[in-house]
Design goal:
The chain has a single domain, classed as Macrophage Migration Inhibitory Factor (2-Layer Sandwich), CATH 3.30.429. 26% of the residues lie in helices and 26% in strands. It has 133 residues and is α/β, with parallel strands linked by helices.
């Protein structure tokens, strides 16, 4: 289950946020996560509250004011290849939605599912185990 936090400069419209949300979710599904596994939060910061180096580490062009800082929290033990696939899909889907790949920053973090709950006061089930309906 990826939990995505998308940090951006203030001023984006609801339509722009919806397009970003859809692109990230489509990327997640294309990387093998379930369609109903959809957890995102958006943080909008004023220009003075979001400091991002324009070219770090070696970008040929500076980032624009539309830069997206995306944190993807994944279950511990997620294979590097799956992260690579998710990263590629995020960039591709966001580009199709109008975001310059130069403006897409992605940071992966991992957590042990035993340290989380998706609701109902129950701890998260191990990856691949879904409750019976």
């Amino acid at each position: 289950m990826p939990l995505f936090t998308i940090t951006m400069r203030s001023g984006r419209t609801v339509a722009e946020k919806n397009a970003i949300s859809a692109a990230i979710h489509e990327a997640s599904v294309s990387a093998g996560y379930p369609e109903d596994d959809h957890f995102q939060r958006f943080i909008s910061s004023e220009e003075a509250d979001l400091r991002i180096s324009p070219r770090y580490p070696d970008l040929p062009e500076p980032r624009s004011e539309h830069v997206l800082m995306i944190e993807a929290v994944l279950s511990s033990g997620t294979e590097k290849e799956r992260k690579r696939l998710l990263l590629s899909a995020i960039v591709t889907h966001l580009q199709a939605a109008g975001t310059d790949p130069n403006d897409v920053m992605v940071f992966f973090g991992e957590f042990d599912r035993a340290n989380s709950s998706f609701g109902g006061g129950r701890f998260a089930l191990p990856v691949g185990v879904r409750p019976k309906k």
